[in-house]
Structures are given as structure tokens and as C-alpha cells.
Amino acid sequence: xxxxxxxxxxxxxxxxxxxxxxxxxxxxxxxxxxxxxxxxxxxxxxxxxxxxxxxxxxxxxxxxxxxxxxxxxxxxxxxxxxxxxxxxxxxxxxxxxxxxxxxxxxxxxxxxxxxxxxxxxxxxxxxxxxxxxxxxxxxxxxxxxxxxxxxxxxxxxxxxxxxxxxxxxxxxxxxxxxxxxxxxxxxxxxxxxxxxxxxxxxxxxxxxxxxxxxxxxxxxxxxxxxxxxxxxx
Length: 233
Prior knowledge:
By secondary structure, the protein is mainly alpha-helical.
């Protein structure tokens, strides 16, 4: 029974993270703002000047979010396509695995799972909005501008647990990690007995952080694929 439960946990987590990459592409990166990737050399800039938008000489200094901007980002993420896709995918995976079993199958079962996933999203975003404001953390994703797959992948994965502070440095994001953990435990309130244990909450927290990392990797690399596709048309 333990092996079977572990297999279900790993399978659900892997499926959710993989779906994160697909959902990011399908929803056009959810309107996230991103900085363009830096060109390799100044000579390359000159050679492309005729058919490309010139890049700035240097990356602009980081400007901390205002409270108005933070509120706008919060409201945007609260009802974003990303939130709907994530909730729909999570509900679909749980429906296929009949988790929690008390909610049954069919349309009603799916509606309950979707509502649960979206309610957790609202709780997580609200906790992150409040805590990030107090701690002066900026959790929205900005592309690295780096060159090289390894460095960009490292940056994207680190971004799932780091936030920018008012001085522009990236440090451990207490608001992002804390809100994901807090939402996972609050989520237990409306879960039936089969999925409301501390272990279930920690599993849910791990999946949430994995999905966050998957979306950040997608935000870093998928715009390049779209750019290449448009250039080849």
C-alpha cells in the first residue's frame, strides 16, 4: 500500500509539472512582462541593426514595485489564464486518479476538484500579496538576459525560490515559499478525510513548488522558440 501511494504521489507530481510547461506555451506566457535576452556581442548588434530593434546599452537599474503595481499584479494573477489552466489541469489529474475518492467522478466530482484547486490558488496569491508587501519582495518573473542553456536554466530554477528586494538583489523568497506552505495547510480545511493529513499538505506544497519551477523554466525559454518560429515564417 505504501509503494502504491508513493507511486501515485510521484505520478501526480510529474504530470502536474509537465503540464506546467504545456500550459505556459498554450496560454502565451499569460501576459508576463519579460526583458529581452541580451545579444552575444556588440558586433552582433551592429550586424542586425537593419532588421532588429536595438537593445539598450546596459540593463536598466531595478526599480522596486510600488504598492499600486503590486496590487495590480495581484489582481491580474488572481483571475489570470494561468490560474484557470493550473486549476483545470490539477482537477483533471486528480479526477483521473480518483483523488480524493470521496468526491466521486463525473461532472460534479470534477467541479469540486476544480473549485478546490482554484480556492487554493486564491489563498496562496492572497498570502503572497500581503507577505511580499510587508517584506518588500518582488516575485514576478523577469527573464535572465543570460546566454547559455545551463546558466539560464539555473536562473529559472532559482527564481522559483528567490525574490528581488528593493536594492535589486535576489534573496530567498519568504513570501513565495511561505504562501505555498500556508495555502497547502489551509487547503486541508475543505479536504475530505482521505486527503487532509499533514502528509497530504506537504505533498501538495511540494507539487506547488515544482509547478512554480516548471512555469519559470517555460517563461525563460519558450519566448525564444516563438521568436524563432516567427522568424522562419
